[in-house]
């Protein structure tokens, strides 16, 4: 297999108002739309995108569909690329969660806590990796782009770079930003770039 670039593009700004947002289906704000447009210009300027995959949530999907149509690109919409299912916590203010469950944020960040009614980190990780493996069997070309969420990106970076989830979280991809990895089957991935959105 020839080497290829995998770009992980995080959705842009959403009106979360301090809430924990997982599967809650929020649209992008105007700022979020500008952030993705800016990153897309940067990404496509580095190398033409040859295949796109996306989370089904609208903050990712709408942008991915638009770019796939404009570029006549193959698009895969896969629920396994959705954000973590936070169950009863989804949509709840982070401040209230901290009062009810002190230390929840640190535990979740380290992949050692399962939100009530949600999925465990291992369930989340397993579905994300299965989604990527399936997409890579059908995706073609030298530049493959996944439009997805912060948690998904962190899980993928931890796996592909061979590090702990808590360490991968330190390489934060801001909303509307992206990370690029050089990929070759049978070899570890290596980091090409990590960029924040730059609005014109």
From TrEMBL:
GO terms for molecular function: phosphatase activity. One of its GO terms (cellular component) is cytoplasm. Gene3D superfamilies: Phosphoglycerate mutase-like. It holds the Pfam family His_Phos_1. This is Histidine phosphatase family protein. It comes from Chromobacterium alticapitis.
